[in-house]
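User: I've been trying to design a sequence by hand for this structure and keep getting stuck. Would you show me what you'd pick, starting by listing the structure so we're on the same page?

Assistant: Good idea, let's start from the same input. This is the structure you sent:
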């Protein structure tokens, strides 16, 4: 099975549910991947200080559309801060061990507050950040540099089955799923649907945040699984690419 989290038929047809690991008393999985030794955290500015171009949510919803062509202007660190906060920012950390269902609450809903996603991005033109692949550390509202591959834009486009605008965008966001965070509570096959529904919440928040900032984006579900996993340092089994989006300033009309 090449795309385990996307193969709905394989999971949902004729699979007899089994007791979840939570039901069996297994330890709750970590809500966030641990930091590797070495790379330093890069703090992001407070998203509350990011200036909006549109503050009316009705206007943002009405004007939202997919954008696949971007101006040659960089994304600012303040804009990036708001986008990451809106899609996977942390509202609350729950430290009480008796709260078995919850470890973290974010700015988007998630089945059972399991929040199975990690956020990565390829920064080509982000003010204040050298070009490279980064991971968002929501618990600290900071990012960490993961890799600096040569020809980053071309590699992004290639992994996105030749969609050139993905590699030309100044910012390319990617959400990987760590399925066991959800499987631990709900087991299979139910967790497959939960994870994919959770991805949709992220996409909608991204679109609304981009519209508020005057940025454009387009949700991407067509890509080469093994190539995208490899580019972003994912093992393709315990963690794999699921959803992604290029972001940039809209072209002037």
């Amino acid at each position: 099975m090449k795309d385990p989290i996307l193969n709905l038929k394989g999971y949902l047809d004729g699979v007899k549910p089994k007791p979840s690991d939570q039901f069996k008393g297994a330890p709750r999985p970590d809500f966030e991947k641990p930091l590797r030794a070495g790379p330093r955290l890069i703090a992001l500015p407070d998203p509350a200080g990011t200036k909006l171009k549109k503050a009316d949510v009705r206007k943002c919803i009405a004007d939202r559309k997919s954008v696949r062509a971007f101006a040659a202007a960089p994304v600012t660190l303040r804009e990036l801060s708001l986008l990451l906060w809106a899609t996977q920012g942390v509202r609350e950390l729950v430290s009480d061990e008796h709260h078995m269902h919850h470890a973290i609450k974010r700015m988007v809903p998630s089945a059972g507050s399991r929040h199975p996603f990690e956020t990565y991005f390829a920064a080509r033109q982000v003010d204040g950040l050298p070009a490279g692949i980064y991971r968002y550390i929501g618990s600290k509202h900071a990012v960490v540099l993961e890799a600096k591959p040569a020809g980053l834009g071309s590699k992004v486009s290639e992994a996105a089955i030749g969609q050139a605008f993905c590699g030309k965008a100044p910012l390319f966001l990617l959400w990987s799923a760590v399925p066991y965070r959800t499987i631990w509570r709900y087991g299979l096959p139910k967790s497959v649907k939960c994870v994919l529904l959770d991805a949709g919440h992220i996409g909608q928040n991204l679109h609304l945040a981009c519209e508020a900032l005057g940025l454009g984006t387009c949700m991407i579900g067509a890509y080469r699984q093994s190539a995208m996993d490899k580019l972003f340092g994912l093992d393709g089994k315990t963690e794999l690419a699921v959803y992604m989006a290029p972001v940039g300033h809209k072209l002037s009309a």
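That's my pick for every position. To get oriented when you compare it with your attempt: Residues 101 and 112 are 6 Å apart (CA to CA). The chain has a mean pLDDT of 92.
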